[in-house]
Amino acid sequence: MLVSGLSGAGKSSILRMLEDLGFETVDNPPLSVLEEIVLEGGAVPIAAGVDARTRGFDVAGLLALLDRLHHMPHVAPQLLFATADEAVLLRRFSETRRRHPLAPGGSLGASVADGIAREARLLAPLQDAADAVIDTSDLPLPDLRRLVEERFRESGGLHGMAVAVMSFAFPRGLPREADLVFDMRFLRNPHYDPVLRPLTGQDEPVAAFIQADSGFVPFWQRMTALLDPLLPRYAAEGKKYLTVAMGCTGGRHRSVLLAEMLAAHLAEQGWRVDLSHRELARAMSGPAGQRAKNGHVPAVSPVGREAPSCTP
To answer: Model-level pTM greater than 0.85?
Structure first.
């Protein structure tokens, strides 16, 4: 596995977490010896950190190396990319007083901002080619560790495709890591019910309110009918991670319910699923955010043939 990413986005932390999971890790080996390191790894999974600081670093050369490894027998290379918002990276560099590796001379603030922009442009092809992108902007280290462990804990590596299901709010931006996005804003909104507003899609009264929408069951049936045959095709093409994002206006009710239901549906089919709620996790001080952080999954049943009482 090759681990790359923007400076300050947590690449080194991810490497340490992978080492705890049984990977043999090496940070910033020269590209000239990277292929040899991978091929000599044997049965031990290798995680190598590569970024703009790597001696002889060349994006095109690294992508060519990945292509060669993909065509070698018994080698299953993966590229993991760590990123974060520019404002978050600026804050992290300001707090540590470290110089950005690509920063030009000049004042600290301006040079760091310039370095971040230069590095983002340089590494953009790697992010586009990555098998998985982890955005650490809103991930404290304990949550980042949980995410890495959930995705990579099986014998120090991945077996098959992992599916991340997440909820989010459209006004706060599309998740960068999303492969498939579904818009839940056509459903009736519990926000306008004063009793339901403080609750979340993890609560049964909210679930009942949303599921009573006449468009809910047809949408659920069509969405699962789309995804059920689609996911195996992604896996057959060698994709290691797939992120399905469910969005609504506030990221608390409709998207949360659908993410919970989809995660349960996919888990029943045997997929390895990582469920997260972006906006609930950001509201760390509230009870809803705490439930999301603790992995609370309520008993919300899928609808359709499995739940005849919900059919229109």
So the answer is: no
